[in-house]
Amino acid sequence: MKLARLFVWGLGLQTRTSEGETLELTQTPRLKNNERTLVIGVGLKSEPVGEIKENLLELEELVVAAGGEVVGSLIQVLPQWNPSTLIGTGKVEEIAEMVRDSAAQIVVVDHQLSGVQTRNLESAIKARVLDRNQLILDIFAQRAQTFEGKLQVELAQLLDQMPRMVDAWMGSLSRQGGGIGTRGPGEKAIENDRRRIRERVALIKKKLETVRKSRAQHRSSRRRHEIPSFALIGYTNSGKSSLLNRLTGSQVMAKNQVFATLDPTTRKIFLPDGPPAVVTDTVGFIRKLPTNLIEAFKATLEESAEADILLHVVDLSSPNMLRQIEVVEELIEEFNWQDKKIIHVFNKMDVAPVERQFQIRQFPRVFVSALTGQGIEQLKRLMADSINEMQTDVQLYFPRTHEHKIFDLSRDTKVIRKESATEGTICYAQMTPALMNRWREYIVK
Ligand SMILES: Nc1nc2c(ncn2[C@@H]2O[C@H](COP(=O)(O)OP(=O)(O)OP(=O)(O)O)[C@@H](O)[C@H]2O)c(=O)[nH]1
Ligand SMILES: [Mg+2]
After folding, report:
1. Which of 169, 299, 318, 362 fits 212 for a cystine, CB–CB 3.0-4.6 Å?
2. Which residues in the chain land under pLDDT 50?
């Protein structure tokens, strides 16, 4: 029975043990409020130590965001990973001692752990062990508000759980002296669990697909009305939501906390001398973002993928600014957004040292403060300019029988010049790619 419970740990599913009794299972092992937590930074000798330390500081922020209290930290740099515990045996002992001394209830390791490694560490350290991915998933699970957000988080958790299960299962088989061909009752229960998870994954994916379609419909209706769109992207806590509020006068939650925003919000914005546009605020990025989360949040990310222009928001005051920019740029490549138009928005200029501005090589860029409003007018002008830049000069030909359409054209865009031609009229105008698509049957050049 112990075996069966082990594998379905944290799935929020009801399942049957090998003895046939029904188990009510709890949600993912959440970090409870004020739970005493030890954080462990790990890295290989080949990695720069500074980066391992930075990652650890960020892990501490993540623990606080999840509601935990950091009571100690420790770093280990290894020549290579230890397959059974990730870190070296001596360090495991040291951590066990720290856990005893500090009465820590939970240990978070800043690296992905396999199911076997987690279990071995837990039995040696005598505390619950989470890895970075599980912690991030935990925060998402706590924050998810909407139906879609909750579905996405559950999907990410299930995808995260599956390989751990298989791994822990293999580990326990080899410990029992079993192997391929030895099928115990526990194994059957595990297979059942795996099937249930697969079914649930399929169900959630189907539901998410429906959500995705309805989003796509909204977007295409925006397209039909030719509304240019911006998406705020950037490192978590860089001030995306604050900027949305400042730009559009809305009141979405902005908080000094990593992953304050999960669900995308779209608001209308009025730019000087420009057409009305929309701005979308979405979930922030972080280094080592779990791939399962990316997979699960596809629908949300599409909202940014479909935007005409990305506003990459950077926290100019962060000591890790350059690394954070790098992480976001890597993700931009991963999502294939590199060909989009990107405006770099360096936020929090009110609290950043002025020299910082000289380190910036990205263009086009603007320095702002969502808090004080500094630079916001400049940002708006840059946004309006970028919309206008998206326009190209086109030439349209309307045969006599379609000349009434010129009236519609002049409502969509400014008709710069009209010339009569044989059996019709030629019009010169400027158009955005979306408008060009709408008028493609008349465009000659
Ligand atoms: N001093 C200063 N603080 C700012 C500025 N903009 C945002 N903040 C603060 O930075 C913190 C994070 O702001 P958010 O707008 O929630 O950041 P976000 O990028 O939406 O964060 P996530 O949704 O968690 O990814 C909040 O405490 C804001 O008050 C600014 O221009 N100056
Ligand atoms: Mg936000």
Report:
1. 299
2. 1-27, 178-179
Ligand 2 centroid to 78 CA: how many Å? Answer: 36
Question: Can you give the pTM of this predicted structure?
Answer: 0.81
Residues 6 or more apart whose CB falls under 8 angstroms from that of 418 comprise 406, 425, 426, 427, 428
What is the model's pLDDT at position 13? 41
Q: Tokens representing 380?
A: 């708006």
> Given this model, what pLDDT does residue 165 score?
78
Query: Taking CB atoms and a 6 Å cutoff, what residues make up the pocket around ligand 1?
Result: 236-242, 254-261, 284, 347-348, 350-351, 369-371
Strands 22-24 and 14-16 come out as antiparallel
pLDDT in the model for residue 296: 82
What is the predicted pLDDT for the residue at 172? 64
Question: How far is Cα of residue 115 from the mean position of the Cα atoms in its chain?
Answer: 24
Answer whether 155's CB lies under 8 Å from 201's CB: yes
